[in-house]
Design a protein that fits this description.
heterotrimer; A alpha/beta (about 525); B mainly alpha (about 375); C mainly alpha (about 350); B: about 375 residues; mainly alpha; ABC transporter involved in vitamin B12 uptake, BtuC; two-stranded antiparallel ribbon; globular; C: about 350 residues
């Protein structure tokens, strides 16, 4: 039963950082409607919110990458203006992103001091610079020998710490960590937390952005929840639990099962994964997808959701377990082999993995279907190519002046439809979709979901791997939560968003989750 | 860090603002010239010929710049355009694709042709097939180094340039092969009159018909009408996406180098017939043949980053360069002519590259 | 508002250790080994190789490529390249030769003029590349032609005859050495040492590596990318002007327009064999000089063994493949280790 959220904290004393009345609009879309954020000195202040809630825009405003339309920013009680990245750094606001923006071929010490080298005359004073670097590394409990290591030889976790060290070198008083744990192992997360605590002891304030709600109880003092472009409130972490936060994140919406898919599932199993494991990401993945069924895989970024899809597609080597398709065991080593078995995949990142940007819509659709569109294995059937292109444009309602338009001139949603169209020219037996509506406007989102459902009704087995909770709940006949690279638990169509989110982001055991799922269904 | 939002925008990217009036017409013309390379080249070609004719009329030229001179100068068009098409394939294949070794393949394959046809008495057709195949083999080395072993194309083809160049010089102790069968091939370079057009269009070198035209047709068919062509453009535009779409990236890329080598092998036969001798420095004398070939490709609109380039552009660019070169020879006496050709080639290349850069940034919106 | 920066203090001996990756890389050690092997083998087969005159002439012939390789290394570290140095060399050489022959100018002014001219030509490249945002390979292909035109016009289809021995102190003759070591070689060593120090111990030098690694990130970090790139090409031109002096000194009293032919490729080969990556961000002048030495050793060895001189190029091609291949393999392993 839903409980009332506690009252939002009112800061007492001078805040380290205060954002009041922030709003920001991009074109016709209001990314932030109203945001207030008050960060005290030396506290770990978590910031949580679903994709699209406005978190990333708020952080960009703080980092100087965007400029707010309205609102005031105060640091230590004085009003400031942040118009660029260097403004932010000069004011002591440093941001550490997931992808460390370091120079791989330079050493840690060089990276930390690039552009601000410690000099003696005109030469670099290595001894003095190194001394400072070693001090910084000690603050983060990193070995002094790292100072002279090339960054590219260090693990992603250590590189992240180097980014933090670099921020400290620039006298950051407010350190923003953007989903740092997404790429870390459990052990590395412990190290990160230790470093964070050390920093707050020194008085640095940390803004900690995460999707993993269970982390908050270990590391955060307070949490600010954002939803639909607004900050809902700031709460001491002590008085909350994961499901409580999850409820605040999703509001009181319950999932809407979209449309009435009367003929759902009921087909024979098409895809069966048993104990599937891959070298780095996955272990003990078990799931089944029947013909005509839409199975949604939901998990936080980094939980392995996308990797399951790419492994089934042959792009990720299998080290354990089996993939069975229509009863036959498969051993796929390339995407073309997957194609031969009727498996199609929509890649997660359309710009890098899906689109041939300055080629035409027709080209983008045809390029994944060459065996179908050619005669005598060599000659392209131009007539068929263009009729296929026009058919797909019509069928998927792609808004384009014509098949010769370059895809980079299309909006995100329509470009995504083009990549989807490529997969659908020949009806696949199994369709894998990764983040199918990422960066897509509402209208196109609906259309893409409709297309997916039509496909399923025609008998295709569909697996949707997504980190968008609403999408997973809306489109899936069944929803499987993926956590830490393995299948965690399954939900039926009547689950609540909060429960699913808690399962993906929380600490409950599998049994507790199942009990909850059953309880909600009854 | 940068001002672009990480997620895709939902609105379409901004188009250049529409203006009205005469300035609008001018800017539309400007845009057409910049974005449509074919139009630009035709305009430049027309301007170039007009300029040469004007110089001719004012008496600056040592010989008339008339139709018969222009068509006879087409003999230079044949080998260079063919190599420019070879470069087209390699550059379109992406990842810094380039082939510095085509000139030395011409030299080496030419020597092989000299041996097989000129000294060992093989039948002409067999010798030709062998030479082309040999060129393809040389290209295969490049293809394996670049596509399968991950060498930067500049370095790989630099290395093979050295290797093939030295092999060509060494295998016959730097001596050309000018035996009778080879000398007799000179007939292949003569000009022919096209029946029916006699008196209207003067003699066009035979090589244009038996070597250049077939190569142009084959390359054009290959890149625009076959599935390989689609794969080539895909791999050159975005090889990650190509992999996700199920294409074999390495094989497609390596094949481009193989075909380039085969074309170089055919060019070897052309140069042997033009010199009436198989010379070990045929493709590597002076600055070599790779440089003008690459210039023609870049001028013809081939993007050095891959994925873009058309046969018609390369053809027009080659024509422009050859005709201007021919005109320059008339405008300047003695060695100065060949020197001014160098200047023109260099200026054209720099200008074309700057133009390519502006066009891509301004009108395609892509961040390359 | 922010806490004051703690005063920099000296680090203890324990913590300092080595501040940068090893000064000599594995690739360079292998190169030294290969060169040593070649020298031993050549001495066995042609004892004349190790004679004073043979070594001296090798070192003098090494000097121009070694000097130019310094600039080329800097350029390639920034993920650029310069194909026009052969043409620049020709221009500087013919201007120098004419000045020496026609106006009897002294060594010092002629050297300075040549360096200034080279620097100017290099700066043209630098401006086009850093501001034109066009790939360096295409730009320098083009300027190679343009500079070659300039050089050929100055030659005017004639050889320059009767060049006085003003630059003899840079040559292979008696006047060109002290204690048996050629001045030209010592000049090269000094320049390499200076470049070495600059690239390792000066911010500007380290910034070149940053630019080659990730130009956008370098820009964001406050590095003036344009100025650095321009300087790299201008420096290369300046060094080419200097190399032209050594080239003239090492030749006969006539200079013809084939001077410098192929030197751009020889220089690039030297740099690449030495372990500098064309992808940028990595490299050292020590490796480049060793690469130049290897190439020169091969050339000398082939001549002394009586083999066809062109065979040397074949070996160079093979060495490029082996060196770059080894480099690629090493990079793949470096990235996966922790």
């Amino acid at each position: 039963m839903p409980t009332q959220p506690p009252a939002s904290r009112v800061p007492d004393g001078i805040t380290r950082l205060s954002l009041t009345g922030i709003s920001k609009r991009f074109g016709g879309v209001k990314a932030i409607r109203h945001a207030d954020l008050h960060v005290m000195p030396g506290e770990v202040h978590a910031l949580v919110g679903e994709n699209g809630a406005g978190k990333s825009t708020l952080i960009k405003i703080l980092a100087g990458a965007e400029y707010a339309d309205t609102g005031v920013i105060n640091i230590e009680g004085k009003e400031v203006t942040i118009k660029s990245a260097s403004d932010a750094i000069a004011l002591g606001v440093a941001t550490v992103y997931q992808e460390a923006e370091l120079f791989g071929q330079l050493t840690v010490a060089e990276n930390i001091f690039l552009g601000r080298e410690v000099r003696r005359g005109i030469r670099i004073d290595w001894a003095a610079q190194n001394g400072q670097v070693v001090k910084l590394l000690e603050r983060l409990d990193l070995p002094a020998s790292y100072a002279t290591r090339k960054v590219e030889t260090l693990s992603a976790a250590v590189q992240q710490q180097v980014s933090i060290a670099k921020a400290l070198a620039e006298d950051a008083r407010i350190l923003i960590l953007d989903e740092p744990s997404a790429i870390l192992t459990d052990l590395e997360i412990r190290t990160l937390f230790a470093a964070v605590r050390r920093l707050t002891d020194e008085g640095v304030s940390i803004i900690y952005i995460t999707h993993r709600l269970d982390e908050l109880f270990e590391i955060a003092d307070v949490v600010t929840v954002m939803r639909d472009g607004q900050t809902i409130g700031t709460y001491p972490v002590k008085g909350l639990d994961v499901r409580g936060i999850a409820r605040m994140l999703v509001g009181d919406k319950y999932s809407e099962s979209a449309s009435n898919r009367a003929e759902r599932a009921g087909g024979e199993p098409v895809l069966q994964l048993a104990g599937l494991g891959s070298r780095t990401d996955l272990h003990h993945v078990d799931l089944t997808v029947d013909a005509g069924e839409i199975v949604a895989l939901y998990g936080l970024v980094g939980s392995g959701v996308a990797e399951i899809a790419s492994t089934v597609y042959g792009m990720n080597p299998v080290t354990a377990g089996t993939i069975t398709m229509d009863g036959k065991a498969l051993s796929l080593r390339s995407s073309s082999q997957a194609h031969n078995h009727g498996i199609a995949l929509l890649p997660a990142n359309r710009k890098e993995q899906g689109l041939f940007s300055f080629q035409s819509v027709g080209f983008n659709i045809a390029v994944g279907n060459l065996p179908l569109l050619r005669k005598a294995r060599i000659w392209m059937d131009a007539k068929r190519e263009s009729s296929v292109a026009s058919d797909m444009i019509k069928r998927l309602a792609i808004k384009t002046p014509g098949p010769k338009q370059a895809v980079q001139n299309l909006s995100g949603g329509n470009a995504q439809k083009v990549v989807l169209a490529r997969q659908l020219v020949e009806r696949p037996r199994l369709l894998l979709l990764t983040e199918p509506t990422h960066g897509v406007d509402i209208g196109a989102k609906d259309e893409i979901h409709r297309i997916i459902e039509e496909l399923a009704s025609e008998g295709t087995a569909v697996l949707v791997a997504t980190s968008d909770l609403t999408e997973a709940m809306r489109i899936g006949d069944r929803l499987i939560v993926i956590r830490n690279g393995t299948t965690f638990t399954e939900f039926g169509p009547d689950a609540s968003q909060a429960d699913v989110l808690a399962a993906a982001a929380g600490q409950l055991s599998a049994e507790q989750e199942r009990a909850l799922a059953l309880k909600d269904a009854s | 860090m940068n001002t672009e939002t990480r997620e895709d925008q939902t609105q379409t990217p901004p188009q250049p603002p529409e203006k009205s009036g005469p300035s609008a017409r001018l800017s539309t013309l400007g845009r057409a010239l910049l974005t449509n390379r074919t139009v630009l080249l035709v305009v430049l070609l027309a301007l170039g010929i007009i300029w040469m004719k004007a110089l001719d009329a004012s008496g600056y030229l040592s010989a008339p710049y008339d139709l018969s001179y222009m068509t006879s100068s087409l003999v230079n068009l044949v080998p260079l355009t063919m190599l420019a098409l070879a470069e087209l394939l390699v550059i379109v294949s992406g990842r810094g694709g380039i082939d510095l070794s085509v000139g030395s393949i011409v030299s080496l394959a030419g020597m092989m042709f000299g041996f097989t046809y000129g000294m060992w008495g093989w039948p002409l057709a067999v010798a030709i097939l062998f030479t082309v195949g040999f060129g393809a083999l040389c290209g295969l080395v490049n293809g394996v180094l670049v596509a399968y072993l991950g060498f930067p194309p500049l370095i790989a083809t630099l290395a093979t340039y050295y290797a093939y160049w030295s092999l060509a010089l060494v295998i016959n102790q730097q001596q050309p092969i000018s035996s009778q069968p080879v000398v007799d091939l000179y007939g292949l370079s003569e000009s022919v009159e096209i029946t029916g057009l006699k008196g209207i269009i003067p003699g066009i070198p035979l090589g244009v018909f038996i070597f250049l035209l077939p190569t142009v047709v084959v390359v054009w068919l290959l890149i625009s009408k076959t599935s390989y062509g689609r794969k080539l453009y895909a791999v050159g535009t975005n090889d990650t996406a190509a992999r996700w779409a199920g294409l074999e990236v390495a094989r497609t890329r390596a094949m481009a180098y193989v075909i380039a080598g085969a074309v170089a092998g055919l060019v070897a036969i052309v140069t042997v017939s033009q010199f009436a001798s198989a010379r070990p420095d045929a493709g590597t004398s002076g600055n070599g043949m790779a440089l003008p070939a690459i210039t023609m490709a870049v001028l013809g609109g081939v993007a050095i980053t891959g994925g873009l380039g058309r046969v018609v552009g390369v053809l027009l660019a080659a024509l422009l360069i050859v005709l201007l070169n021919a005109g320059i020879l008339l405008a300047f006496s003695g060695n100065a002519g060949s020197q001014y050709q160098l200047l023109m080639l260099g200026l054209i290349l720099v200008g074309a590259a700057l133009l390519n850069g502006i066009t891509m940034r301004k009108y395609s919106g892509s961040n390359r | 508002m922010t806490a004051p920066t703690p005063a920099p203090d000296r680090v203890t001996a324990r913590a300092s250790g080595r501040v940068l990756p090893s000064p000599v890389t594995g690739q360079e050690l292998v190169l030294i080994g290969v060169i040593a092997l070649l020298w031993v083998a050549l001495t066995i087969f042609t004892p004349a190789f190790l004679s004073a005159s043979s070594l001296q002439s090798l070192l003098v012939r090494l000097a121009p490529v070694g000097i130019m390789a310094i600039g080329m290394t800097c350029v390639i570290i920034t993920a650029g390249i310069d194909i026009s140095i052969a043409a620049t060399l020709m221009v500087c050489a013919v201007v120098t030769a004419k000045l020496l022959t026609l106006s009897g100018m002294g060594a010092v002014p002629v050297i300075l003029i040549s360096m200034a001219l080279g620097c100017f030509l290099g700066a043209i490249n630098g401006l086009l590349i850093s501001y034109g945002r066009v790939p360096a390979i295409i730009i320098t292909f083009g300027t190679a032609n343009i500079f070659q035109f300039i050089g050929l016009r100055i030659f005017n289809s004639q050889t320059v005859n009767g060049i006085p021995p003003t630059l003899g102190f840079l040559g292979p003759g008696q006047a060109g050495r002290v204690l048996g070591v050629p001045y030209a070689f010592m000049l090269m060593v000094v320049l390499v040492a200076l470049a070495w120090v600059y690239l390792r111990h000066f911010p500007g030098g380290r910034h070149l590596y940053a630019i080659g690694d990730d130009e956008q990130a370098a820009e964001l970090a406050g590095v003036n990318v344009r100025r650095h790139v321009l300087s790299a090409y201008a420096l290369t031109g300046l060094l080419v002007g200097l190399a032209a002096q050594v080239t003239i000194a090492g030749g006969t009293t006539t200079l013809d327009q084939s001077v410098g032919r192929g030197q751009e490729l020889a220089t690039i080969a030297a740099v690449v064999i030495g372990g500098t990556s064309v992808m940028g961000g990595r490299g050292s002048v020590l490796g480049s000089v060793l690469g130049a030495l290897l190439v020169q050793t091969v050339a000398t060895g082939v001549t002394q063994l009586g083999w066809p001189t062109q065979l040397a190029n074949l070996f160079v091609g093979v060495f490029i493949v082996v060196a770059v291949g080894a480099d690629l393999i090493r990079e793949r392993y470096a990235r996966t280790s922790v």
